[in-house]
Amino acid sequence: MKKIFPIVAMILLLASCSTQEELSYLNNLDEAGGEDYFTMEIPEYKIQVRDLLYISVKAQTPEGTLAQMLYDRTMGAGTYMNDEASQYIMGYSVDPEGKVTVPLFGAVPVAGLTIFEIQDLFQTRVDSLFRHAYVEVRLLSFKFTVIGEVGNPGSYVNYNDQLTVFEAIGRAGGVTETGAKERVLVIRPTGNTTTTFQINLQDKNTLASPAYFMAPNDVVIVQPVPKKTFNVNLPTFAFIITSVTSAITTTLLMIDYFGN
């Protein structure tokens, strides 16, 4: 009977271990020396209501120097990236009608346009007002959230034009040992609808998924592996097995003692 507990403990330990395949990403890529090619369509994000834009207009003065034309919002341009509050104050918000109100241009419909289309639109308008003018438009509200079985769950801000799901999860500390890389959910709100994607970080076909490139306001949820519940309750299981084994051993000893 004394040999039962070590055997059971070994079984529990083996059951709680993760294999190398479970811990790796894209584990079905070709072996070293081979090459795989994936068609990736980089999405063109279209501005939505409540998005926040950074807009800068510089023009040439009679003296031949470039001057900032939007002083009311860009006087503090050196610090506008410091925190979300500064971004909210410095940025131009898209109103519920899909318009952004900017000095020099008034209320301009921008919802449904890409950043580059908006920049071209403002550039055309400013060219009629100033010589050698330059317009710069950026999206300030590219936020994404990663929750579930990752090292550092939370919301993050992306300051690049592109972001992949691997980069997003990397920002959040990567998938933990209790996370199921083959069961990752991406939630994407678009207008009045929400689209969901189930992706497998161990499958190379993820590189061609519509969810490979992140969009603003995406939420990534890394599901737990089934064994997590088992691992969490492992101390309880061990205590129960120890107690039962001890009780059985004591009972057998008492039977043997009184039987003699």
Number of strands: 11
Q: Which whole number gives the mean pLDDT?
A: 78
Task: Report the total helices.
Answer: 8
Report the helical percentage: 25-40%
Measured between the Cα atoms of the first and last residue, the distance is 20 Å
Order of helices and strands: HHEEHHEEEHEEEHEEEHH
The structure class reads alpha+beta
Global outline? elongated
Beta-strand residue percentage: 15-25%
Low-confidence stretches: 74-81
Question: Any idea what the radius of gyration is?
Answer: 29 Å
The major pleated sheet works out as: 5 strands, mixed
Strand order of the largest sheet: 8-7-11-9-10
Explain the overall architecture:
By secondary structure, the chain is of the alpha+beta class. 31% of the residues lie in helices and 24% in strands. It contains eight helices and eleven strands. It has a five-stranded mixed β-sheet, covered by helices on one side. α1 runs antiparallel to α8. It is elongated, with a radius of gyration of 29 Å. 17% of the residues are buried.
